[in-house]
Amino acid sequence: MINLNSKKKWIIITIIIVIVTNTLTYLGSGFIGSLIPNGNVTVSRSDYNEISKFEKLFLVKAELDQYYDGPIVDSVLVEGAIKGMTSALNDPYTVFMNKKEYDDFNATTQGNYSGVGLQVQADGDKIIVVDIFEDSPAKKAGILPKDVIEKVDGKVVTGKDLETAVTLMKGQEGTTVKLTLSREGKGTFDVNLVRAKINIVTVKGEMIDSQVGLITVSMFDENTAQNFKNKLTELQGKGMKVLILDLRSNPGGLLNECVDMVSNFVDKGKVIVSTVDKNNKSQKYYSTGGGAIGMPMVILTNEGTASASEIFAGAIRDYKLGTLVGKKTYGKGVVQTLLDTGDGTALKVTISKYYTPNGENINHTGIKPDVDVDYPDNLRALAYDRNTDPQFIKAMEIAKSKIK
User: Please, what's the largest Cα pairwise distance for the chain?
Assistant: First the structure.
């Protein structure tokens, strides 16, 4: 989940650049400082000793210049070093994004991009498909939820390469990308996909009958909260007395959009979510109130319901505003922010843990539904049909029981 409220201009002076330009200066008293545009950075003597090891890399680089039979681009070496450092953290959500990766990321949060139409998540050392957009190249090729992406254009990708894999799958409309996937019962197989323009419609809704409305939210981009409010108002005008909200396979997105969306149902001033950073500094996000407070709800969740969508589910659960139906959620209880590193690049870094209104951090544990309902694997290979969806059928049953 990205907290864009914390987005800031941040000029990165990498350890490597600092050493190469000789700006790292010994200050005595056990501390080291480096001059940067807006002041000094101070590190301990032990940290300096570790940092100094990077100088050896540039001695090696001089040897490469002399002997390596191939092109050497300094900027590529620096980017590789930064990516290596973030990769060493073993946090799939903390990544350095070059200009192309950052542009692709922004396109997704703005609601459109060119790619294959997959939503994916890191699951340990695997990259798992959690959802496929309708009418996308991936949908037409028969890719299914729970498929594991092993390679993109021959490049092996693992859970820690999540952002890299996403970037590799995106590209110019009309170009081809080959995915190597594995599926239980089928084994490993290749799929060649032609990239297409993907316009992400994150909010869809309709009346199921004269009193039950259904809204599906596929992710939280920068338009989701307003589009949700519009759809909610539309269905209320059509006589909706109870809402089924489908958050299945919703991977999350922008924190502020989630808070705005939950506010439709939570009394003004109540805490929706709290974040706590490494220094134990807490920040609370409060409901601004909305026009659907008191409306009965049923929330559909599954293993792909993650991050911001878990915040939504957690708030509804803790305030006892609705019934959760389906499977336990993914369990991503951390928040990232974007740090502008200049030249169109950015660092996406985990900055805090988040807690539901009752003070629970669901990282790696998820949120259990009130009513556990499986979705059989054999149905995943078929065209979706609400009439055979056991989770939706149960949600509809519960929704009708809430009508007074």
Answer: 81
Would you call 332 a catalytic residue per the annotation? Answer: yes
Active-site option among 160, 231, 327, 332: 332
Burial class of residue 85 in the structure, from the number of CB atoms within 10 Å of its CB (0-12 exposed, 13-18 middle, 19+ buried)? middle
Which one of 307, 309, 389, 394 is the catalytic residue? 307
Active site residue 131: no
Instruction: Say yes or no: 57 and 166 in one domain.
Output: no
Sort 186 into a burial class: Cβ within 10 Å, 0-12 / 13-18 / 19+: exposed
Catalytic residue (choose from 318, 352, 389, 394): 318
pTM value? 0.75
In a domain, 190, yes or no: yes
Mean pLDDT per 10-residue interval, the chain, length 404 residues: 56 34 33 41 66 64 76 80 87 89 81 85 89 89 94 93 89 94 94 90 94 96 94 97 97 94 98 96 96 97 96 98 98 92 90 96 96 91 87 98 92
Is residue 246 among the annotated active site residues?
A: no
Domain hosting 67: range is: 12-72
Shared domain for 164 and 233, answered yes or no, is no
Instruction: Tell me whether residue 94 is in a domain.
Output: no
